Amino acid sequence: MSLLSEGSDPYRFGTEAFYAAIGRSFVAMCAVVPFLFLIEAVDQGLAFGLDPAAGIIPQRLDGLDGVFFSPFLHHGFDHLYSNSIPLILLGTFVLAAGVRRFLWSTLIIILISGLGTWFTGSPNSIVVGASGVIFGYFGILLTRGIVERSWWNFAVVLLVGLLYGWQLVGILPTDERISWQSHLFGLLGGAVAAIVFRRRQPGLGGSHYSDSTRIFG
Fold it and tell me: I want to staple 79 with a disulfide (CB 3.0 to 4.6 A). Which of 74, 127, 132, 165 is the partner?
């Protein structure tokens, strides 16, 4: 007998599974940040020069590999500190909806944010940082609230907006030191990921996407 009925969502808001998923996701995201600090510490301590070597250099072929590597690099610890809390907060709620959705969504965000920055950024710049991914997670939660009619996603977006709403102007070209392109394309990448990997409502046609394993006995 299946423990999960067809079309059910074991991670819906208010269930024990939901709160357990939130807890596990928070721990996982908290483990990511020390890894980023370790990379920055090694880069600065050993003077590897990872930013110019592995950051995005727009419109140059030797800077294209930065699309994949730049989210793990930062321009100093202050830059990393400013990204850490929103990365943990937003990443927790995105990850809580399922590991596979999280991984594939993050890949889409990295590709769209990175390629968009590479095509449209200044060739005289080097772009590093996880802010494109952060804006992507924000885009996921906002778009999920619309396409999945999820009120708790809207609630998370509202909370983040109240805490970090001033940073949303980062999608506009207001400061030449900030890559607004990575923010804007990250937000768009998150919206695309939310649509591609959305959970379909029962009875509306199509398959019901879920990370859950169906158990029979």
Answer: 74
| Rounded Cα–Cα distance for residues 56 and 36 (Å) | 17
CA distance 129 to 79: 8
103: left (phi over 0), alpha (psi -120 to 50) or beta: alpha
7-55 pLDDT per residue, tens: 445 555 567 777 888 999 999 999 999 999 999 999 988 878 899 999 9
Nearest CA to 175 out of 164, 185, 183, 163 is that of 183
Whether the Cβ atoms of residue 127 and residue 182 lie closer than 8 Å to each other: yes
Distance CA 128, CA 8 (A): 40
Instruction: Output the six-digit token pair for 179.
Output: 């890559």
Alpha-carbon gap, residue 19 to 41, rounded angstroms? 34
Question: Which residue has 């807890």 as its token pair?
Answer: 23
The separation between the first and the last C-alpha atoms of the chain, rounded to the nearest angstrom, is 5
CA 12 to chain centre: 21
